[in-house]
Amino acid sequence: MHPYLLSVLGGVLIGVAAVLLMAALGRVAGISGIAGSLIRRGVGDRGWRIAFVAGLVIAPWLLWLIRGDSGIGAPQTGLPWMLLAGLLVGFGTGIGSGCTSGHGVCGIARLSPRSLLATAVFMVFGIATVYVVRHLPGGL
After folding, report:
1. For the purposes of burial, counting CB atoms within 10 Å of the CB of 105, is it exposed (0-12), middle (13-18) or buried (19 or more)?
2. 43: number of Cβ within 10 Å
């Protein structure tokens, strides 16, 4: 299957999952909120949250079993940079009250002004980060 077709299929599946979660449970498919609530005590309805996160982890593994390729690709940088990036993303989702899936997929679909602004902000900073990292002397 062509890589672009896989990307389109992945986007469709993300959209379907977001719609199903909203229709069935009235919840926004924001990954940072779903995963973060698994860490906090006192948050109810953990079953669907565990299943959702497990699906995110298991899906690339199943794709690898079927195709011999997970579609993720090799890391482009070392572990220290990935850890720093993960911490910054986690910090940013806390400040922005959500992540790309919550704001970018679900919020924009609902025409939320807050989500439109949040998505614009993380797109600008994502583009700026890629530009800076690619133009550092010696690279990463």
Report:
1. buried
2. 13
pLDDT digits (tens, 9 = 90+) for 4-28: 887 898 889 888 988 999 899 988 8
The residue among 57, 9, 58, 56 whose CA lies nearest residue 29 is 56
Pairwise CA distance, residues 63 & 53, whole Å: 16
Helices 3-25 and 46-67: crossing angle in degrees, nearest 10, is 160
Domain ranges in the chain are 1-73, 75-140
pTM summary value: 0.73
Tell me the per-residue pLDDT of 31-87, one tens digit each, with 9 for 90 and over: 888 888 888 877 778 888 899 899 988 988 898 898 888 777 788 788 998 899 888
Q: Which two structure tokens, joined as six digits, stand for 134?
A: 């690619």
* DSSP single-letter state for residue 77: S
